Every structure is written in structure tokens, then in C-alpha cells.
Amino acid sequence: MTKRSGTSGKLANKTVLISGASIAGPALALWLHRYGFTPTVVERAPELRPGGYKVDLRGVSIDVCERMGILDDVRRASTDMRGGSYVDNAGATIAEMPADFFGGRVDGDDEVMRGDLARILHERTRDDIEYIFGDSIATLTEDADGVDVTFEQGEPRRFDLVVGADGLHSHTRRLAFGDEKQFKRHLGAYISIFTAPNDLDLDRWETYHALPNKLVCAYSSGGESTAKNMFVFGAPELSYDYRDMAQQKKILDDVFTGDGWEIPKMLDNAAAADDFYFDSISLIEMDSWSKGRIVLLGDAAHCASPASGQGTGLALIGAYILAGELAAANGDHSVAYERYESLMRPGVEVNQKFAEGFAKEMTVSSKGKIRLRMALVRMLPYMPWKNLIAKKITEDVQKAAFAVPVKDHKEYSVYEG
Ligand SMILES: Cc1cc2nc3c(=O)[nH]c(=O)nc-3n(C[C@H](O)[C@H](O)[C@H](O)COP(=O)(O)OP(=O)(O)OC[C@H]3O[C@@H](n4cnc5c(N)ncnc54)[C@H](O)[C@@H]3O)c2cc1C
Questions:
Q1: pLDDT tens-place string over residues 41-76
Q2: Nearest CA to ligand 1 atom 19
Q3: Using a 6 Å CB cutoff, which residues line ligand 1?
Q4: CB of 55 within 8 A of CB of 312?
Q5: Residue nearest to atom 28 of ligand 1 (CA)
Q6: CA 166 to CA 43: how far, in whole Å?
Q7: What is the predicted pLDDT for the residue at 3?
Q8: How far is the CA of 22 from the centre of ligand 1 (A)?
Q9: Considering only CA atoms, which residue is closest to atom 53 of ligand 1?
Q10: How many A from CA of 88 to the centre of ligand 1?
Q11: Nearest-10 Cα torsion for 153, 45, 231, 77
């Protein structure tokens, strides 16, 4: 890798419109502002979206959090999970696992709620950066010197660069590259998560109940008086409007009505939830993440799905690299976009492959196979080869977590922030 000493000369392309205020968008805005750019973030939701699952921060993404100056906040928001259990239909424990049991986590890795991380990033940036909530890009028209942007609500504006950090169903991607169908690969399952009353009185504990082709979970994390309910089910690609929450709640109802354990109550919780999240477990695979002055970041570019356990980490790392490369190239987007993509892509591919394997393991197809898996989980802590299995899982997870070589970037003074 060529060694460079950082920025010199005049910064071009200073105004940057970022679509999406979840993880990738605010993280990019933080870095761009630090490097002297003027980012504006537009978010379709009327306010910062709460909710979501617990997300792992491992390896390089921890390093990036430290460089962003948010690591202490992240640690304070840690889910601090103690462990989990599998229960049967009557709620009796089948097997228990400590929090790090085969989780692939090593010292220094952490876990936070997605909503907490989004809040931390927003709090860190909102005083310096223009956020526009409740609006969306309507059209993008690029010429040699910039991009004319019209909005669904606000007045038209012109920006030097546009970044789509608007998730799996990226609107920016649709405008610049076309229909999402070309890029989305369904991995055969759906996931739903939402906030619910802590009816099971869980204390930093997750309780799973497995059914053929389905997995249900309730958990509560550190510092939360409420719980999260999660549903996973295997299904071929379904046709629904991903912005129609009522329709998604109905799908969940259709799939899980009639099932036992706490599921009837959890379906009621779903009906009442206002941070209801439902999506397919899918990959986004594109030949290129940029077109002219428009570039994609995070899930919009390369969703690795929840099955990778790395989507949030990759969003943070990508934001760091994209901003760093723009600064290193003095704003020359054609140089920066190419370097950003060549640095990120190999690591993204490792994580997507990992996700593909794990997605198949999230649910089990029959009662017999569930019984087998439960027996295995129960016996594993007592098996002589348990350490070998744990070591192999940790190696795989950590390989994915270090797959983007940000460490090399320490030699770039521009990356030092
Ligand atoms: C509310 C919420 C809950 C989530 N819960 C889970 C979960 O339980 N399990 C899971 O695996 N993943 C979940 N995710 C996705 C996960 O957070 C991402 O995979 C990961 O963090 C990468 O982040 P990202 O910023 O690239 O994309 P995302 O986190 O998906 O963020 C995209 C952002 O863009 C916004 N947006 C969408 N369209 C537009 C538009 N037209 N204009 C402007 N803004 C737009 C969205 O509202 C969102 O804030 C959730 C995301 C959100 C927003």
C-alpha cells in the first residue's frame, strides 16, 4: 500500500449530501466534518429511528469507534448480557449458555443496541451538521461539477457529492443504479424485532424457543426496563411493501398464529410496537458502489445481513475509509471512491460469505433436528473437544471482524483525525 502523508492543497467537493441517519450516515458525517467537508444528512423518518437488535462491535470497528471518540459512550451503552437459554413449549429450560459461549467474541469486543449506537452518533454530530428529518431525495441530476437534488418536501439544492447510506432498500441506489431486484439476494429467512414489555422478567438474558423453520426470542439488555421480542422464520422471497408496517405485522401473525410458548403474547406485543422492524435476511451484491459523484455506503452498498453479525461494523468502517479517502484525495471523488471500494470489497466478501453460511443455521427444519441441536447445546459444555469448537468459531468470527485492513491506515496522517 502506498504511503501518504495526508491532505495538502485545496479541498474540492466540499458539500456532501448523505441520505440516511442510522449508522453509516452519521458516522460518515462525523468524519467528513472533521476533515473540513460540509455534510448534510437527510433522513426519511420524522426523527431518529429507535429500535433494532443488539449489534456486535468487534475487531476493526472497535478501533474505528475509538478513533471517532465514541468508544467510552459505546462501552457505557453495552448490553452487558449474562447469557441465554433455550426453552421448550412450556417454558422449561432445555439448555443454558453463558454470554460468550461460542459467540466468537474476544476481550475488547462489545455489543450495543442499534438504537443506542445511532443515538450516540447523532448526539456527537447534531451540533455541527445539518440534519433534515422527514424528507427524502426525490431526484438526482448530475453534471460535470455537481448534483442537482430535488426533495420530496424541501426546496431543490445542489451538492458536490451524494452518498446513499439509506440501508438495504436504498432509495439512492434505486435512483442511481436501478431496481433493487438486480442486487438483492434473499438468503431464505425473515427477521422481526421490536420493543416489548419485559413479561418474562429477564435480566440481561435471552430466551430462545425453536420451532421447525422458526426461532423466537425474548431478551432484555443492560439498563433497559423493557425487553425485545424477536421472530425469525424461513421463507422464500415474499411480496410485500417494505414501508407498510401493518402488512408486515400481518405476515408475522400469519406465520406464527397457533404456535405455543409466549408467542401469542409476543404477537400482541408486535401489534402494539411502534419501533417494529421487519426485513428479509438478504445480501446486496453490486459490481460497483459508485456512479459519477454518487456513492453508496453501509447496507446500501453491500448489506451483509444480520446473519453476518457485522453489518453495523462494516457501516462504521466504510464511513471511516470513505471519508479518509476523500480527504486524502483532497475531495477528488473519482480517486477516493475507487480506493474506498478496493479497500472495503475483499472484507465485505468475507463477511457476506460468512453470512450465507450462518443464515442456514438460524432455523432448523424439523422437530427431530431441533431435538438433536438441543441435545448438542446441552452436552457441549461437558465435551472434551468443546474448546476446539469454540476456538474454530472464534477464529472465523474474528477473521471476518478483521477482514477490512484499517490497521494499515494508521500510516495515513489524514486518518488520524
Ligand atoms: C430502525 C432500524 C432497526 C433495525 N433493526 C435491525 C434488526 O433488528 N436486525 C438487523 O439485522 N438489522 C437491523 N437494522 C439494520 C442495521 O441497523 C444495519 O444493517 C446496519 O446497522 C447498517 O447500517 P446502515 O446505516 O448502512 O443502514 P440502516 O441502519 O438500514 O439505515 C438506513 C437509514 O436510511 C433511512 N432511509 C431509508 N430510506 C430513506 C430515504 N429515502 N431517504 C432518507 N433516509 C432513508 C432509514 O430510515 C434508516 O435510518 C435496523 C435498521 C433500522 C433503521
A1: 999 999 998 877 888 888 888 889 998 999 999 999
A2: 311
A3: 19-25, 42-45, 49, 51-53, 114, 136, 165-168, 171, 191, 193, 277, 298-300, 306, 311-312, 315
A4: yes
A5: 167
A6: 8
A7: 38
A8: 6
A9: 22
A10: 33
A11: 160
Helix ranges (DSSP H) in 257-383:
263-272, 299-302, 311-328, 333-361, 367-379
The residue to mutate among 17, 19, 22, 317, having the most atoms of ligand 1 within 8 angstroms of its beta carbon, is: 22
From the list 322, 303, 51, the residue with the least C-alpha distance to 169 is 303
Domain boundaries defined on the chain: 15-365+392-416
| CATH for the 15-365+392-416 domain, from 3.50.50.60, 3.40.390.10, 3.40.920.10, 2.40.100.10 | 3.50.50.60
Instruction: Report the pLDDT value the prediction gives residue 374, as an integer from 0 to 100.
Output: 87
- Mean per-residue pLDDT of the chain: 89
* Separation of alpha carbons 362 and 234, rounded Å: 9
pLDDT for the residue 392: 74
